[in-house]
Amino acid sequence: MNRKFILVLLVGFFLLGCDSQLEFTELPIGGNIEAVDKDGHSVSFKSFQEPVILVFFGYTYCPDFCPNTLARIKAAVEPLSDAEKTKFKVVFISVDPVRDSPETTTKYVRFYLPQSIGLSFSGGITNQILKQYAAYVEKTEDGQSFDHSTYIYVLDKNRKTRKLIKSTDSKEVITKSIQVLSSNSI
Fold first, then answer.
1. Is 53 contained in some domain?
2. What's the rounded Cα separation, in Å, for the pair 150 and 6?
3. Spatial contact of 104 and 92, defined as CB atoms under 8 Å apart
4. pLDDT value of position 160
5. Which residues line the annotated binding site?
6. Which of 38, 66, 80, 135 is the most exposed place for a label (fewest CB within 10 A)?
7. Residues 14/18/24/30 CA torsion (nearest 10 deg)
8. Which distant-in-sequence residues (6+ apart) come within 8 Å of 74 by Cβ?
9. Which residue ranges does the record assign to the Thioredoxin domain (predicted)?
10. Is the pTM of this model over 0.70?
């Protein structure tokens, strides 16, 4: 094979690899929730004005993943314009309904991001939502912490899950996901 062909082939593979991080498709998990939180307030993602919602599961006593994810989202949205920052909301759903109240979870996430909300539901509703999102949660042997999924679920304006952002994805994937989905360009 000649060098030019190999170079074109390598560039093609590189470009395909880059594009795969920004592919958006309608996923059969997640989406809108309609439930009553522990304070008796009705919650529906469809009532949020923002065209993009970033959903993730965690708990306020989490020693590592949750604060790291919030810090990563914060870093990802810093380059956005003021107008772009109004186009998304972060929704943190507690997997620890015994210790986390809606007020505590909201205070926790707003420490990092003002455009966020924390939700806490009864154990039964939490389990239904976890099943809807195909999220993994298991209490550890010590009974004080949880092993849990580390995905950020990206919902569009119709509250369909369009992307799962892995904990290993760059912060630019978060930034671009917000920009692309909020611009109605797909």
1. yes
2. 37
3. no
4. 97
5. 62, 66, 148
6. 80
7. 120
8. 112, 113
9. 15-183
10. yes
Q: For 96-110, what is the mean pLDDT?
A: 95
Split into its structural domains, the chain has a count of 1
| Residues 165-181 pLDDT 10s | 998 899 999 999 999 99
Segment 121-146 mean pLDDT: 94
Per the CB < 8 A criterion, the answer to whether 101 and 122 are in contact is: no
* Residue 167: domain span: 25-182
d(C-alpha 113, C-alpha 110), whole Å: 5
Annotated binding site for Cu cation: 62, 66, 148
- Is residue 160 a part of any domain in this protein? yes
CATH number of the domain bearing residue 164 = 3.40.30.10
In a domain, 48, yes or no: yes
The encoded tokens of residue 60 equal 């306020």
Residue 86 domain-assigned?
A: yes
DSSP 44: E
Tens digit of pLDDT for each residue in 1-28? 444 433 333 333 333 344 446 789 999 9
SS3 state at 72? helix
